[in-house]
Specification:
heterotetramer; A: 333 residues; alpha/beta; Rossmann fold; six-stranded mixed β-sheet; 14 strands; globular; B: 209 residues; Serine Threonine Protein Phosphatase 5, Tetratricopeptide repeat; two-stranded antiparallel sheet; 9 helices; 2% strand; binds adenosine-5'-diphosphate; binds magnesium ion
């Protein structure tokens, strides 16, 4: 395992110490238990927004804490959802009297831990609503399983809900917008290489020199299928098709197109994918009116990419465009 | 009869076994999950053991509840709330006790299982820890009811857990992270069922040595 | 070779097409010859700033084109400096009547090609001044060699000179500020893995499972030495020492600390390095008053990191803080 | 005497040889540079050849100048301006000619070399293309002045280029990207010296077959 770390057991703590040293103007980092919170929290009279999940997906979620996005983020160990006490403490720290939204990615662990945190918050009289994000169309959905994973739509939901909270929407409304984002977004990812969990010390999976994994999860969980490496244009189509099928987009629709690096894929390749994506959508009469291209929800150093489409309407577009000032996303300020 | 000392020995043995099997459990989790189950269990029990010294004066119920709370607040993931709830409920079932009758041992494990079912909503055959835990608790209860010695009964529980664990191999996961794999989850042993088997094995070795 | 590309020969063109499709609000992409230029170029009455270099270092330079930073960027083939006609066309396109600054990284190819472009621009009566950036302390300097390479300071110079041009400084002044940035900045990088040039098809170098390269260049050029992998804290010290030696910083000095990913290194590791860097500087009484952490000058998918320190004064700090709106760097707008 | 047809044949042969040696040149450049010299030369000459058809009607001087300009505008890197200048200056030395005397062949290469020296400011022993080009031009001039046939003279130039190329191996680079390596550049053959050797070799094979 080759990583710029000291001790695998201290990766998250030392990273957080680094964030604290680097960004004290934007966030406060609490180490017992781990959470990252807006420097000016709680914002009185504003709905608080808390998210969290395993570490290793940086800049998500800690990089999205700040004005116009999250009020707090709870990082777990690498790829391990955080614990209820982290979320509980974060919830208390951001409660400005209008309740707190929990944005939860749909993983059994995340869901159960956030549930327990909500129970604790409820005990203290803090109103909490949780919205579970499950946009990953790589997973065949079913009522009888854990459902789909939460991936790229989480980033979009955090930005959009952050803007809604900032403009003064109440908890029910912010939660409604969050569900709207989730309902109108779909994602699909792929990997060229595995990531290596520091404490595991070796790659989670092995891919041959000419293989790729389609439908990979952001924790290196195996995907839909393993297959021969294809040109970027074909891969783009393979990622896009199930997304289109899921969202049932039609001519004239407007979307936000999000091309994401799994961590180890350089920008140059993301733009090659974006190019094809834009061509394919253009052919279908769907217009990309907003986009996001870069490494926003990663899987350590994994090489690969994911595509997320979010169907936009005026409200979502306006909220997407609203000012935001976090470590990893900034505009209008 | 299981003494508080034996319960403490069990928790020590569990910590050892999770430390020893860290790579093994993680390896199983790499195949159908995210390569952290070994680290999760080891981290949780090492922390729980560390805190144990401060609760050693307490009764078995409190000790187990504390273990559960530590697991909840240090493990995370799916196994944190699940095993956390297991030990909290198990502790609740034997509140105030300094030693346990065989029936109380059954009650301890049965309450733990119920907690897991409540928290995770998995059913038998979903390819989770429940697939090892349910047959193990059933076997334990039946054997104790049939008048077996606790040692024999626990051995039957271990055997049932082992069988349940192995039976997860061909299953297609319906719950937890492995369920995202669909058909591709078949052919791999569930990591959580494996850590559950190890839990019963450690109990067999320390409760009725 | 595993990359999200179609044809190794079309990587740069297709990437630029992607950029054009994604960011037409910010930049115009010209394909014959390749250059990326501010959508509103030329800005009348403002000094134009052009940079460029081989592709594969994204987001540099194309990601830095826009208000408050570059007016145009000329991308060459991967790791190959662009040609004089690209720079010449870009120079003409951004000339707002106050002359054009060329920011050139110190590589023989870049220097010669920019020289030829300046000769061409001179022929058309456009005043051009070139500043060569050579901040890489991994290279032993000498009057009789090609000197040191230009690396991380380039990003800082582009931001700072962009702000100076934006506030109305004349060409001589913008060039002077550029030289000041270069004189007060020093960098050092390292790699855990090699990059693979698409047209070469295989890794530029091989490192053993337990090896790292210290003093690596951003084109995968070998560095100072190859050695056993060390913990991040030690590596940070090894990168910092020659920088401190070069800059002759003393107690009370203020610096901008820039921790850069070579492309394949995730944020989490950059923050572990930043943590140690901040501790080490604190011990020496040097204060980090500004920072930049992320992938800004990369080497395709190479895993590794570099540290750049820039000694700040009030002028540089003010220019660093000025608004900027480009694809990869944005603040205040 | 070298005809325009032979000059065109030389440029064709050069394109072939750079295409064939693309991996080889890039491999050399990987060791002490940035793994692009093969791609650079191949890209430049393929483009130059493509444009050649439009200049075939012109004289040798114009043809070479056009080659140089195409190289400057398609290669980039260090080799683009250097070889670009080489061919532009070489063309300048034989302006208006449709065939070349042996002395004019010498003038062609000598002017090219001068252009490279002017543009790159490298000296003999700096571990660059100059280390192959200088001895080759010197050998060519001396042999022609001594009355050798053009074939023999070009063969001596090729031999000198080859020797100069090999002599770069132990050198520590003083110019170009390899110079960043300091002592570590020793022990590797310079890619530019190699492409220069290939240039003389192609001339030998096409000018006086
Ligand atoms: N809903 C559930 N009910 C019971 N057990 C579950 C459930 N979901 C997951 N598990 C168990 O949890 C194990 C995985 O634990 P772990 O790897 O620590 O957490 P995570 O999946 O969050 O990474 C699985 O092997 C499975 O046995
Ligand atoms: N100043 C110089 N003068 C002459 N030749 C040089 C000079 N600098 C570099 N070269 C030659 O250029 C070659 C490298 O060319 P190439 O790899 O195409 O460009 P780059 O180094 O920009 O990647 C070197 O092997 C060397 O022979
Ligand atoms: Mg996990
Ligand atoms: Mg797991
Ligand atoms: Mg090059
Ligand atoms: Mg080169």
């Amino acid at each position: 395992m080759k990583k710029l770390i000291n001790d695998p057991d201290n990766v998250v703590r030392e990273e957080l110490e680094g964030v604290a040293l680097a960004h004290s103007d934007l966030v406060k980092v609490v180490l017992e238990p781990f959470y990252v919170v807006r420097a000016d929290a709680p914002v009185e009279g504003k709905v608080g927004i808390v998210s969290g999940g395993g570490s290793g997906h940086e800049p998500m979620h800690g990089g999205f804490v700040g004005m116009g996005m999250l009020d707090a983020a709870c990082p777990g160990e690498v790829f391990t959802s955080p614990t209820p006490d982290q979320m509980f403490e974060a919830t208390k720290a951001v409660n400005g009297g209008k309740g707190v939204l929990h944005i939860v990615k749909n993983y059994t662990g995340d869901v159960m831990n956030f549930e327990m945190a909500a129970e604790l918050a409820d005990g203290e009289g803090i109103e909490v609503e949780a919205v579970v994000i499950d946009d990953d169309v790589a997973v065949e959905d079913s009522l009888y399983t854990a459902g789909r994973r939460g991936v790229g739509a989480t980033v979009l939901a955090e930005k959009i809900c952050g803007a809604a909270a900032e403009r003064g929407d109440d908890l029910a409304k912010v939660a409604e917008i969050c569900r709207k984002v989730n309902d109108n977004a779909a994602s699909m990812g792929m990997a060229l290489t595995s990531c290596t969990v520091p404490s595991a010390g070796e790659p989670t999976f092995e891919l041959g020199e000419n293989e790729m994994e389609i439908g990979i999860g952001i924790h290196g969980e195996p995907g839909r299928k393993r297959m021969e490496l294809k040109p970027a244009d074909e891969i783009t189509e393979m990622l896009l098709d199930p997304i289109l099928e899921d969202l049932e987009l039609s001519e004239g629709d407007e979307v936000l197109a999000f091309v994401n690096s799994m961590g180890g894929t350089p920008d140059i390749e993301l733009y090659i994918i974006y190019r094809r994506l834009a061509q394919l959508l253009e052919e279908k009469g769907i217009s990309i009116t907003r986009n996001l291209i870069g490494a926003y929800i990663t899987s350590l150093e994994m090489q690969g990419a994911s595509i997320t489409l979010l169907k936009l309407d005026d409200e979502l577009t306006e909220l997407w465009d609203a000012p935001v000032h976090t470590i990893a996303m900034r505009k209008g300020i | 009869m299981v003494t508080k000392q034996e319960v403490l020995a069990w928790l020590n043995a569990l910590t050892d076994t999770y430390n020893e099997n860290k790579q093994h459990l993680t390896k199983l989790d790499s195949a159908i999950g995210d390569a952290d189950h070994g680290g999760n269990m080891a981290r949780g029990f090492n922390k729980a053991l560390e805190k144990l010294s401060t609760t050693e004066e307490k009764d078995i119920g409190k000790i187990l509840k504390n273990i559960g709370m530590t697991l909840v607040s240090t493990v995370g993931g799916a196994s944190g709330p699940l095993y956390g709830t297991f030990y909290m409920r198990a502790g609740g079932a034997v509140e105030g006790k300094d030693e346990l009758t065989d029936e109380e041992v059954v009650a301890l494990f049965a309450a733990g299982l119920e907690g897991v079912l409540h928290r995770g909503k998995a059913e038998m055959g979903d390819k989770t820890m429940v697939d090892a835990m349910t047959p193990a608790v059933d076997a334990l209860r039946e054997a104790v009811e049939a008048g077996d010695s606790l040692g024999d009964a626990l051995q039957k529980a271990v055997d049932a857990a082992e069988q349940g664990m192995k039976d997860t191999i061909p299953l297609v996961a319906k719950k937890g992270r492995a369920s995202y794999l669909g058909e591709r989850s078949a052919g791999h042993q569930d990591p959580g069922a494996t850590s559950t088997y190890l839990m019963f094995k450690a109990a067999r070795e320390t409760f009725a040595p």
